[in-house]
Amino acid sequence: MLARRRSLRLNGQEVERTPLLVPSFSSKGFPDVSKIIEYSTEMIEGSMLVSAYDLHYEKIKPPFDFASLLFLDSGGYEASKDAELSDYGDKEHIPQEWSQEMHEAVLAGWAPSIPSIIISYDHPKEKLPIREQIRRAENMAPGRTDVMREILLKPETETQTLIRLESIIENIHGFANFSAIGVTEKEIGNSVLTRMQNIARFRLALDKAGIEVPLHIFGSLDTVTTPLYFLAGADIFDGLTWLRFAFHQGQTLYKQNYGALHLGVKTPAHVIDGRCWNSNYYYITDLELEMRRFLNEGDFASFRYHGEQFRAALESVREAVGG
Questions:
Q1: Chain mean pLDDT for the chain
Q2: pLDDT digits (tens, 9 = 90+) for 199-248
Q3: CA dist., res. 37 & res. 65, Å (int)
Q4: Largest Cα–Cα distance in the chain?
Q5: Angle between the 269-297 and 33-40 helix axes, to the nearest 10 degrees?
Q6: Cα angle vertex 104, ends 102, 107, to 5°?
Q7: SS3 content of the chain, % helix, strand, coil (to 5)
Q8: Are the C-beta atoms of 51 and 93 separated by less than 8 Å?
């Protein structure tokens, strides 16, 4: 089975087990991100993700000790005008300066009170071959032994919009010393099925090399694609969809539609936001439990919604990758 429990380890000790669904926070699209985090302190008990870019520009301020595990993202998303697949672009984002030196300065000053995983530097204008991406990620935060390290893999040239799986597999043994390996949803393939197939091929290559490291899909945190990528062999999922939309009965809906149908047409927008964030957070915690039950039982009925569609999609992946 491609989907399995895997460990996040620090100095050989298990810190957390997958699957993990990670609510993300970013100033990109959410100028009041600090207030949103403050609002979320009462509900978030598990993992969360924030950006090194936002720390540098003091858009957010630690500590984030209400969470149990913190992912410190690379800053590349905020440093670009690129969007996640879920981003409908209602707020213009103007990136500020971001460099590897700035990233390293944030890491040097990072003093978390909870377990944390730092993610390798990324910038949309700085493209490197996979081998050099590995080397740069290995060298980040030199000397620190109190944090886990994750490499975020990106396209190697300005003309590439997708990562080349061939380049990754050629360098597969270089990933053995990372706590996790990340790719963005939009860069691992141009359809859901292709992304599932590429995730499965990546996972099979890691298995063949004896590397049991979790795969992290950036930008995927919703009611349908997250379970599909999990079944294909991915382990950690984060995104801003939980702040942008409403999760309801297996669907990802516009918040205003959810508000009109379930809260009433007179409900103010800020009230809908708060209700959706609360509801969405508990929806993804339930979905994470469904994924864990699937690992115990191997039964697609573990998923409350779409189980048979998930089974059919996985069978298509198995046929494409050879079982």
A1: 94
A2: 999 999 999 999 999 999 999 999 999 999 999 999 999 999 999 999 99
A3: 12
A4: 57
A5: 60
A6: 115
A7: 40, 15, 45
A8: no
Q: Residue 82 pLDDT more than 90?
A: no
Domains detected in the chain: 7-321 (3.20.20.105)
- Model confidence at 146, pLDDT cuts 50, 70, 90, reads very high
Tell me the CA distances in angstroms from 156 to 110, 129, 146, one per residue in order.
29, 5, 30
**CA separation for the pair 176, 115 (Å, rounded):** 20
Question: What's this model's pTM, rounded to 2 decimal places?
Answer: 0.95
Say how far apart CA 29 and CA 41 lie, in whole Å. 20
| Vertex 232 angle, CA 79 and 23, to 5° | 40
Q: Which residue has the higher pLDDT, 176 or 93?
A: 176
CA distance 46 to 69: 6
**DSSP symbols for 113-170:** SS-EEEE----TT----HHHHHHHHHTSSTT--SSEEEEE---SSTT-SS--HHHHHH
The whole-angstrom separation of Cα 201 and Cα 187 is 15
- How far apart CA 226 and CA 276 sit, in angstroms, is 19
**Rounded Cα–Cα distance for residues 139 and 135 (Å):** 6
Residue 322: pLDDT band (50, 70, 90) is confident
Q: Does an H or E element contain 257, and which? A: helix 255-262
- The amino acid that residue 166 corresponds to is E
Which tens digit of pLDDT belongs to each residue from 252-269? 999 999 999 999 999 999
* Mean pLDDT across 279-307: 97
